[in-house]
Amino acid sequence: MPSTPAAPEPSPAAQSDAPSSTTQSPATRALADAVREIEHHVATAGWDAPVRVFALVRTQAALAAEPSLAAQLEPATLAAAQAEPWHLTSIEQEGLPEAPDLETLLAGLSWPESVDGVAVTAERVILPPAAEAQMPSDPDEALPWLLAHPDRQDVRLAVGVLREGATWCAVRTRANDTDDQVGQGPDVVPGLVSALRATLT
After folding, report:
1. Taking a C-beta distance cutoff of 8 angstroms, is the pair 89, 59 a contact?
2. Does residue 6 form part of some domain?
3. The model scores a pTM over 0.90
4. Would 14 be classed as within a structural domain?
5. Looking at the domain assignment, is residue 13 inside a domain?
6. Which pLDDT band holds residue 131 (cuts at 50, 70, 90)?
7. Which residue stretches does the UniProt record annotate as biased composition, category Low complexity (predicted)?
8. Domain containing 171: what range?
9. DSSP string for residues in 65-120
């Protein structure tokens, strides 16, 4: 369900095209690829979706630990994983604990050392700052007011972090719901990046 803009919001620095791969570290390139793949996968299910959480593991290490995984991968994915040590596989987490909001959910998560990173997708409703300043302070009044506001924007956030420090974000708006209109960057949603990083410590 969409939530109020009290949660981390996209910064205006989002770019619709990813930076040149020559400017990124191998870990950041791999994470950017994984986050884009996760966002695209989630987008195929449509809007008004629940929060989804994914563990990220290096594919080579996953194959070494469980060789049978190779049979589940597309040949092109397997070849990419064999050629790129930082190639990542995302594993969606089922049975997430009940939580009143995304921040509480993330605060209750932790990961074993075998997990190299984590990604999350979530939907948000955001407003221009001037409109947000007029939002009622009573939560029971704020949500109906927000959902009815003509300047509201529905956005889907896909954010990933790695233990080694790399971060990547992708943001899609419902008003521009096409793959070539997805904003991307390493720090587009800094609050959510920080919350995810805390789950890996």
Report:
1. yes
2. no
3. no
4. no
5. no
6. low
7. 12-28
8. 21-198
9. H-GGGGGGS-HHHHHHHHH-TT-EEEEEPPSPPP-SSHHHHHHT----TT--EEEE
